[in-house]
UniProtKB/TrEMBL annotation:
Protein name (database record): CR-type domain-containing protein
Residue ranges constituting the CR-type domain according to the UniProt record: 51-135
Region of interest called Disordered, as start-end residue ranges on this chain: 1-37, 314-340
GO biological process, one term: protein folding
InterPro entries: DnaJ_C (IPR002939), DNJA1/2-like (IPR044713), HSP40/DnaJ_pept-bd (IPR008971), HSP_DnaJ_Cys-rich_dom (IPR001305), HSP_DnaJ_Cys-rich_dom_sf (IPR036410)
Pfam families membership: DnaJ_C (PF01556), DnaJ_CXXCXGXG (PF00684)
Taxonomic superkingdom: Eukaryota
Source species: Pleodorina starrii
ZnF segments: CR-type: 51-135
Residue spans of biased composition, Gly residues class: 1-11
This protein's UniProt keywords: Metal-binding, Repeat, Zinc, Zinc-finger
Any GO molecular function: Hsp70 protein binding
Length: 340
């Protein structure tokens, strides 16, 4: 709203320029609304599942009760003398011989409200400011199924950013808190379940606590094999649909299978006896005479960082042969010098 040059035109033009009001003039100025206040509201996944109420305290400015927002004891509103009630001060700056630039800036005397109560008639409650500080605690209703980024509007509850303006809205933006167990994907939920290799091979039963406190049991029957990183879908155990809370998404369970670090000879023997072994010859072993054993075998904890660390392994070794575009120049010059 700072300064800006501009030719003639009346004071209403000035306001239209400042506030982008089309053809309203002074009458429309009163209808200008206070600024809305946007606030992030942290909500747990439990509350988004069940719905509920959250308490929220907000500070705001309300029209002073004692003077009905006029700022004066008499109830009269005084136009600011410094800006003639426009809220804008106009300065002229000489640009050159016979040329002046018009600069507009918000009136500092009335804080661009256009009103200024003389000290003698100032309301003692608000000291002529027309507004007083207020604090209110709201019970904010969270609908079941609301999403991250959903907006809750408390209309007209943000108070007044300037005297004489209609109050603004409080706009609450739902920020979904991270959950320890469940991840949300739209109306669906995803959870991870770690089971042992034995459970993966022989079936298992596990329980978990849902977001509404119910304890659910999942039975993987004997005979079914759970593969690592496979998923199961628990139908209708996801998030409620917003606006249709009796309809729900799915819960997807991703299985981590924990393998034993080592096996004893007896365990290995028992497993070989229990599970079909495809036979040594069938397991990719070639039937030739000249076979070499690989001796250096180590574990790789993280293949991505392992491969990253391998990028420069051969660089030093091949330096005299490789031509690397980046550091080719100095070497090339050196070669030339040697030839001369
Ligand atoms: Zn003023
Ligand atoms: Zn007052």
């Amino acid at each position: 709203m700072g300064s800006g040059g501009g030719g003639g035109g009346g004071m209403s033009d000035l306001f239209e320029q400042m506030f982008g009001m089309g053809g309203g003039g002074r009458g429309r100025q009163r209808e200008r609304k206070s600024e809305d206040v946007v606030h992030k509201l942290q909500v747990s996944l439990e509350d988004l599942y069940k719905g509920g109420t959250k308490k929220l305290s907000m500070s705001r400015q309300l029209p002073c009760d004692a003077c009905q927002g006029s700022g004066s004891k008499s109830g009269k509103r005084y136009e600011c003398q410094a800006c003639q009630g426009t809220g804008v001060q106009v300065h002229l700056r000489p640009l050159g011989p016979g040329m002046m630039q018009q600069i507009q800036s918000p009136c500092s005397h009335c804080n661009r409200t256009g009103y200024s109560t003389p000290p003698g008639d100032q309301c003692t409650s608000c000291k002529g400011k027309c507004l007083v500080a207020d604090k209110k605690t709201f019970d904010v209703h969270i609908d079941a199924g609301m999403k991250h980024g959903s907006k809750i509007v408390l209309r007209g509850e943000a108070g007044c950013s300037e005297p004489g303006l209609a109050p603004g809205d409080i706009i609450l933006v739902v920020v979904q808190k991270e959950h320890d167990v469940f991840q949300r994907a739209g109306v669906d939920l995803v959870m991870e379940k770690t089971i042992s290799l034995t459970e993966a091979l022989t079936g298992c039963t596990f329980t978990f606590k849902h977001l509404d406190g119910r304890v659910l049991r999942v039975v993987i029957p004997q005979g079914e094999v759970i593969k690592p990183n496979s998923f199961k879908c628990l139908h209708d155990e996801g998030m409620p649909f917003h606006g249709r809370p009796y309809q729900k998404g799915n819960m997807y369970v991703r299985f981590n299978v924990e393998f034993p670090e080592t096996l004893t000879e007896a365990q290995a023997k028992a497993i070989r006896a229990a599970l079909p072994v495809p036979g040594a010859a069938a397991n990719g072993t070639m039937d030739v005479d000249d076979v070499e054993d690989v001796h250096k075998i180590t574990n790789v904890a993280d293949i991505e960082s392992e491969l990253k660390s391998r990028v420069n392994v051969a660089k030093g070794a091949g330096e005299s042969y490789e031509s690397d575009d980046d550091d080719d120049m100095p070497r090339g010059q050196r070669v030339q010098c040697a030839q001369q």
